[in-house]
Amino acid sequence: MIKIMHQGWYEIISNKALTDTVYRMELAGDTSAIAKPGQFVNIKLEGQFLRRPISICDWDDTTITLIYKVVGVGTRQMSRMEPGKKLDLLVGLGNGFDVGKSGDKPLLIGGGVGVPPMYGLCKRLIAEGKPVTMIMGFNTAAEIFYAEEFRALGANVIIATADGSVGIKGFVTNAMDGVDYTYFYTCGPEPMLKAIDKVASTSGQLSFEERMGCGFGACMGCSCKTKYGNKRICKDGPVLEREEIIW
Q: The pTM is what?
């Protein structure tokens, strides 16, 4: 039985750097509240008032994989944590991706730390026999992570770097040219999502990165306007349909 949300203690199995600023943390604990890719956890950190929301990269029956970027005090604190430490997590938060709308040729697009939630989604689409194209966007070659992991799943990986050091020079929208797809899924900074919306030729789902208070819809601190009224990014999102978004 799938739970709506679970709070519990999760033990760090590993916590390793993927780049100078991006880390991969694997945690052991109850994963029954995770229903679909695109959901997130909210982590309580010692000395910090607000929990830190981190998207779920992947999960199985006993473990959760998180990939996060060190951008402030909280994530820097996380990067120093050793295996064996236990963390208080809220798990199974947010409305994730609907894989049932992918069509025959789904396109996945991730920018920077918007890449991790695409991994769990890619894994499930490929398990359904769908040929997946994954576009990854970074500023430079030094920032690239998880490209080989996506290839190992069987995805067609296209990399775009702003400085042209690897793959296509430019942004993820440049990499979309010539790709044949039936539906798109994306996660990344809002300017990237807005640019994708301008050029995408199909319907799709966009996952928004947002600062959150509670993480489960009680504080209303992450509300946004949509064509169907105000929605909370933490509870009604972070995944929204392309057609409902007001830019």
A: 0.91
Cβ neighbours of residue 29 closer than 8 Å, sequence gap 6 or more: 8, 9, 10, 11, 62, 63, 64, 89, 91
- In order of their start, the domains of the chain are 6-93 (2.40.30.10), 99-206 (3.40.50.80)
Per-residue confidence (pLDDT) for residue 247, from 0 to 100: 84
What CA–CA distance (Å, rounded) separates 187 from 116? 9
Secondary structure tally for the chain: helices H, strands E: 5, 15
3-state secondary structure of 197: helix
- Mean pLDDT, the chain cut into blocks of 10 residues (247 residues total): 77 98 98 95 93 95 97 96 98 94 98 96 98 98 98 98 98 97 96 96 88 51 62 68 88
CA distance 203 to 229: 20
How far, in Å, CA of 37 to CA of 96, rounded?
Answer: 5
At 83 the pLDDT is 98
**Can you tell me the distance from the alpha carbon of 106 to that of 116, in angstroms, rounded to the nearest whole number?**
17
Q: CA–CA distance from 56 to each of 10, 68, 92, 151 (Å)?
A: 14, 10, 9, 19
Q: Are strands 133-138 and 52-59 parallel, antiparallel or unpaired?
A: unpaired
Write down the residue that tokens 């100078």 correspond to.
20
CA separation (Å) from 222 to 34, 174, 211, 233, 241?
Answer: 21, 30, 7, 6, 17
Environment class of 166 (CB within 10 Å of its CB; exposed 0-12, middle 13-18, buried 19+): middle
Q: What are the Cα distances from residue 54, in Å, to 19, 33, 143, 175?
A: 17, 15, 19, 27
